[in-house]
Specification:
CATH class of one domain: Mainly Beta
Order of helices and strands: HHHHHEEEEEEEHEEEHEEEEEEEEHE
Bound molecules: copper (II) ion
Structural class: alpha+beta
């Protein structure tokens, strides 16, 4: 009965969402209600799920620290992409990706036995300019066979589906980076659902030859973690840790262009979404073409992605979260701290 256990877990985790509100921001009365829950039953609900520590729930109840793992700069390598390079004929961009098994702490005391590229889920951001030769040296030091399948236009023998790289093996992917846009890479070994939800995926930016305007650039990969193995996610995050950007808001400057590369790699759930409070952004699906939607909410199916641009009108803490309330309450929520 995966549904039941998931609902129970949701009930247990609901007060977590209130933590930053009660503890740090004192925004509205809705949080008082969440803070007033009887939490003795919550502890029981989460026990069968495995390793959810009581401390998480309790901290949230009394409005102390936001229950997120780690320090303020831990996820910088995933949040801030490598710099865009101006187009230059004949350039080769090289990356090394190593598949490794790694237990990831996705929420305080909650570990997920992940399969990763380079140790994290999502894996590193890969970036090239349209026309570059992309060369990715892949080594499998994990316990299962893996590949790297890139989205984009490339020869089929570089597609990451025919060569299956066993433990100890390696393969070099090499192709011209095109078309410009925001793409993905992920493992394509079978069973595919497992190889993806275990953590083998990441963002793949191809910059147009005519560069985009300078901006404060951010990468957000939406994902989920099934920490009790019931085929449903127990935690939702951007870049791998629940509530991380609630604890460590992303600082950006008012009136300056902010560009977000947003991709959805959530397994099990059909869609995920990004909703911004107190402002609107422009959204370019897949980072291609010249269609921009002006909105405060965008939804993405698995594998969908897009480029968001915004100049914040005001300063202060701007909340963002999945507009599926369930996801938000299970970790997919954070803040931009907009400053002058
Ligand atoms: Cu795999």
């Amino acid at each position: 009965m995966p549904k039941l256990s998931r609902r129970k877990l949701l009930a247990a985790a609901a007060p977590l969402a209130a933590a930053p509100i009660v503890g740090k921001l004192a925004l509205d009365s809705g949080s008082a209600e969440a803070g007033g829950h009887d939490h003795s039953s919550h502890s029981h609900a989460r026990t069968p799920a495995g390793h959810q520590p009581e401390a998480m729930g309790h901290a949230a109840m009394v409005g102390e620290e936001v229950p997120a793992v780690g320090g303020p700069n831990d996820l910088d390598a995933l949040l801030y992409p490598p710099k865009a390079l101006p187009y230059q004929p004949g350039r080769v961009r090289e990356y090394e990706l190593v598949a490794v098994d790694n237990d990831l702490e996705v929420a305080p005391g909650v570990f997920f036995p992940a399969w990763t590229y380079n140790g994290s889920a999502p894996g590193p951001v890969i970036r090239a300019t349209e026309g570059d030769t992309l060369r990715v040296r892949f080594r499998n030091e994990g316990s299962h066979p893996h590949t790297i399948h890139f989205h984009g236009i490339h020869p089929t023998n570089m597609d990451g589906v025919f060569e299956i790289v066993g433990t100890g093996g390696s393969f070099t992917y090499e192709f011209e980076a095109r078309p410009a846009g925001l793409h993905l890479y992920h493992c394509h070994a079978t069973p595919l659902k497992k190889h993806i939800h275990k953590g083998l995926y990441g963002a793949f930016i191809i910059d147009p030859r005519e560069p985009r305007p300078p901006a404060q650039e951010l990468v957000m990969v939406m994902n989920g973690f099934d920490t009790d193995g019931d085929g449903g996610n127990n935690f939702y995050t951007v870049n791998g840790r629940s509530f991380y950007y609630a604890k460590y808001p992303i600082r950006v400057k008012r009136s300056e262009l902010v560009r977000i590369y947003l991709a959805n790699l959530t397994e099990f759930d059909l869609i995920n979404s990004f909703h911004l409070h107190a402002d609107f952004f422009r959204h370019q699906p897949t980072g291609t073409g010249d269609h921009w939607e002006y909105t405060d909410t965008v939804m993405q199916c698995q594998g969908q992605r897009g480029v968001l641009e915004i100049e914040f009108a005001g300063t202060g803490l701007h909340m963002f979260h999945a507009h599926q309330s369930e996801f938000a309450e299970l970790g997919w929520m954070g803040f931009f701290e907009v400053v002058d």
